[in-house]
Amino acid sequence: MGALRIRSGEARDRRRGAGWLAVAMATLGPGCEQRVRSFVDGDGGAGTAGGGAGGGSGTAVGGGGAGGGGAGSSATGGGATGGGATGGGATGGEATGGSATGGGATGGGEAGGAAAGGGDTGGGGGTPVECSPDEARCAGDLIEVCGSDGRWGLAGCAGWCGAGRCILPPSCRLGETGAGETCGPERNQPCCASPRVPGGRYDRSNDAASPAEVSDLRLDRYEVTVGRFRKFVEAYPASRPAAGAGAHPAILRSGWDAAWDSRLPASQAALRDDLKCNPGLHSWTDDAGGNELKPISCVSWFVAFAFCAWDGGRLPTEAEWDYASAGGSEQRAYPWGNAFPNSTYAVFDMTGSAVVGSKSPRGDGRWGQADLAGNVWEWTLDFEGTYPQPCRDCANVERGSARVIRGGSWWQPRPEDLSARLRTGWDPTDVTDALGVRCARKL
Question: Which domain of life does this protein belong to (predicted)?
């Protein structure tokens, strides 16, 4: 029987009609007419599985099964695949041929599979190659790595994906203190996750008189934990920021001012003392212990700014923080929606802070941020004052005394104190056991 490369029963081949059929039958020779007709009609043929050492033949025409067989057998691969056989002939294919040791080849599909010995491997094709081994790419915030089988698979990353690699801020690097920790109620989420917040327009504090627009950003899923903050403390004072660090990319004079250096603790010992601002209620411990997954507290605005800058991020503007809390244009009353707060949504009216994300996912915001209401208040970049107008990536960084804090905390007695509308100011040098920080980052 002559050799002829036959594609799978595609529409364009079927349209070639009787002329193509005549040429195919003439080329194949007597006895093959019915099998060619079956192929042209699109049924893929029956495909037989021969077998045995006596050299039985296996024929798979079109998309049917693959013939088995022993030494000296031949197999006509269905579709674009030819199978090679030890001691026997094989009909060549358009794409990658399958291999067989002493037996039939696998038919069907664009890429042939492998068959050892005889057998009746079904048609349908082998696994297509998607990528080159060790190649990497981002799938949203996840990272995919190409395996030895040429298929993409998810790889672990405690941070987020950028340019095909796992991005980990200093507070989260593997093998070091604070790294590898998992947060959330089931301890199965990386504490260092920083989900994307797509930019857009909204009304600040749900007030139509104060429209604003923010650009895309990342906002950390969780408030900074004691475990993550420990890295900053251990590196201090070398972890203090340089002039200009932690700036918002669209806001002039929003980076670290060297004149603020004097507002930071003079030494690591002084910083540790500041973090213990209220015995029995502060979350910091000098040695790692049971509070590692609680939010850091007792941090001044200057220390919070310094941490975020050191960690590769920055303080969010009040507009960015408010945008995430309100769910952008959804204008939510609370991060989770409009349902009135209770203990299943947020940590409030308690005697101390809780593990970050303890109310997830029920209390999470639109883009996955936890504890935007309750647990600890959070510093923002802005001075307290009248909202700037117009506001496109705006912040009040020019004048004022108090800095804006948002979100409420564990000691708020009233549920309405957790509203996305609530804002207040706090002395940037002052510390309290109910005030922490969450960092923003560029995409």
Answer: Bacteria
